[in-house]
Design a protein that fits this description.
The chain is α/β, with parallel strands linked by helices. The protein contains eleven helices and twelve strands.
Length: 330
């Protein structure tokens, strides 16, 4: 059981340190447990001249699971792409083909008052955003800057999906729904975009292989509205990379804070990268204010999905719930 820890930048290092304490606490129940650390992000850039240096990438390829903190520094966007600490995560996702991103949104009963929505709207919330993670606008070619025929500066990105890319994320969605409430909502923009017309066609065809799972389709703008109006109608929501980036953060805020939720990104098989979804939060880094619960729950997801130890995952989930019920807060 080879686990690679990539703490990263900002509060990534702080919350990951607490998650590692939890991981080490259950290590005795994990035969063959091995844990290693490697640099990524700003520290790796300073030491190696690359935010995702070759030794780190090689270790990531060999690991069975990766516990990730956060990467990115203020002014990241001004640095050439290949040198950006924040871009190291996208490069890692692409190299490892981590195409399926699980973003759960659930509400701790003790924190229901933190949500800005009415209690009856969010109480009992438990949904999963499934985001395709290795294609779409973030990786499509061509991309870049140029000058048009009128002499004006312009920029361009390419939204593109292939049939196999859509098929594999659709299969993940339906299989996941079978372990939950057997409902899948596919989110697209098929009324405007050709790539989304292909998305809807392929998802519908794959859905025929899962007659026990209810499939619905919604345009992304309607899906956002329904997510705010009646989020408990959803179980698994599957969507492309860009829409998933936006809707998963919106879903997180239904719970009151993006800082409390874990995530997992998978390649084919059980290999996964597990990370809190809150980012580096440079405004509170180094102040001992960051909440480590999302990173700790990411360890629980790792045990549940990559190592098939739901018993250990349940113990961690229960410990978090108990701490909250006893009134502990950052």
């Amino acid at each position: 059981m080879k686990i690679l820890v990539l703490a990263g930048d900002g509060i990534g290092a702080e919350v990951t340190a607490q998650a590692v304490r939890i991981l080490d606490a259950v290590a005795g129940a994990l035969p063959g447990f091995e844990r290693a650390d490697a640099p990524i992000g700003a520290d790796a850039l300073a030491a190696y001249g690359d935010p995702l240096p070759a030794p780190t990438l090689d270790m990531a390829r060999k690991a069975e699971a990766i516990l990730f903190g956060a990467v990115g520094v203020p002014g990241d966007e001004e640095i050439p792409y290949e040198k950006r600490p924040g871009a190291s995560l996208l490069r890692l996702r692409k190299d490892l083909d981590l195409f399926a991103n699980f973003r759960p949104a659930f509400l701790f009963p003790e924190l229901i008052g933190a949500s800005t929505l009415k209690r009856e709207v969010v109480e009992g919330l438990d949904l999963m955003i499934l985001r395709e993670l290795s294609s779409d606008l973030y990786f499509g070619e061509p991309r870049g800057f140029g000058t048009n025929a009128a002499g004006h500066a312009h920029a361009f990105n390419t939204m593109a999906y292939t049939e196999p890319e859509i098929e594999r994320i659709a299969h993940v969605a339906f299989r996941l729904a079978r372990t939950r409430s057997r409902k899948v909502c596919s989110v697209d923009k098929a009324n405007v975009l050709e790539v989304m017309q292909l998305w809807r066609k392929v998802v519908a065809r794959v859905g025929l292989e899962y007659p026990d799972v209810e499939l619905t389709h919604q345009f992304v703008d309607a899906a956002v509205m329904q997510l705010m109006r009646a989020p408990k109608q959803f179980d698994v929501m599957v969507m492309g990379n860009v829409f998933g980036d936006i809707l998963s953060d919106a879903a997180a805020m239904l719970t009151g804070s993006i800082g409390m939720l874990p995530s997992a990104s998978f390649a084919q098989g059980r290999k996964g990268l597990y990370e809190p979804v809150h980012g580096t939060a440079p405004d509170i880094a180094g102040k001992d204010l960051a909440n480590p619960i999302a990173a700790i729950l990411s360890v629980a997801m790792m045990l549940r999905h990559s190592f098939e130890r739901p018993d250990l995952a349940a113990r961690i989930d229960a410990a978090v719930a108990r701490a909250l019920s006893e009134g502990y807060r950052t």
